[in-house]
Amino acid sequence: MKNKISFGIMMMFSFVLGGLCMYYFSYTHRIVVTENNSGISASASTNANLGDKGVTQTTCKNCNNTVIVDNGNLSSAIEKAFNAAVMVKNFKNNTVAGSGSGFIYKLDDKYAYIMTNHHVVSGGNKWTIITNTDEEIEGKVLGSDEYLDLAVIRVDKKSYMSAATIGNDSNIKLGDTVFTIGSPVGYEYRGTVTNGIISGLNRLVEVSVNSVNIDWVMEVIQTNAAVNPGNSGGPLINANGEVIGVISMKFVKDSIEGMGFAIPIDYATSYLEYLENGKKIERPLLGTSMINISESYTLWRNGIMVPEGIDEGVVIAAVEPNTGADKAGLQKGDIILEIDGSKAKNSAYLKYLLFKHKPGDTVKITYSRDNKIKTATIKLTKNEN
Fold this sequence. Notes:
Blueprint: H1 2-28, E1 29-36, E2 39-46, E3 63-68, H2 75-82, E4 85-92, E5 95-107, E6 111-116, H3 118-121, E7 126-130, E8 136-145, E9 150-156, E10 165-166, E11 177-182, E12 192-207, E13 216-223, E14 235-238, E15 242-250, E16 260-264, H4 265-269, H5 272-276, E17 284-285, E18 288-292, H6 296-301, E19 314-319, H7 324-327, E20 335-339, E21 342-343, H8 347-354, E22 362-369, E23 372-379, E24 381-382
Parallel strand pairs: 10-15
Antiparallel strand pairs: 1-2, 1-3, 4-5, 4-7, 5-6, 6-9, 7-8, 8-9, 11-12, 11-14, 12-13, 13-16, 14-15, 15-16, 17-24, 18-19, 19-20, 20-21, 20-22, 22-23
């Protein structure tokens, strides 16, 4: 009888001890998956003294990469950023022409400043924001730029308003947890939160700005967090509750899911002085009109033949007098292949590479003439348009 009681006590003690161990490893450890030359292995890494940020630092001998799987939740990060998110309504002649999202990035004594997309405010003559308290406030667009796809709206400051914490995108990595806050589909679903990961970095996405044709390239962060119509202009936020990007677009196609894109926050904030003060961003002029190599009919109409073997580049259709291109000796029919060593695949890429510079800068152009590769150094002038 004594043996049976002792055995029962031992079994109960083992069960309790096992439960405590499970609790400890469930709540104080994360699984760190490491990839090395011999395959995949797993080890445990303690969460002790990590604080609310949930940052785990690990060292692993003979490992090439370390991936941290975070089983925590985002509620504290969402709470930190939620009150800064707003809905933006665009009116034309007192009729709602469209809506999007935005976020308060700065407060001063009198005003709140909201960042959103250019395409959210474009074409309107009145703009309002709807705050997290459901108050609708008329605002003023201080500045907007179509190539940046960014705009700044100013509204009267309210006591309950809070500004988002602006992070930086210099240290983000593939697989980092991110989330968005926005107003997909409009008013009814304002304040919607979606989460995902960083799916791609430094993506170059071709877009249309001034025409129905592709005429610009944007360098963006890719995420699989759900992005729907109305999310444009809203924040892309990391697990610390810091804004690292501005939602701008997504791929829309029946066969594609989970491909949204955000403007990196460092790039966006570098232009705030222009946008807040309504300054026009000065962009350089090369001094040529262009035709893409793929536009065979337009090339034929202009009497231009492209040599065989060249399938990327931009053909010069005309050169403007007294511009950098004219002074460097570029001619009709020359095919621009590269700017400063980067390929100019088409006119959208050429413009993207060109607009990285300012008027007065010099660039090295690689081009083809009579099927011979040549180079020219061109001083860029100011675009007066």
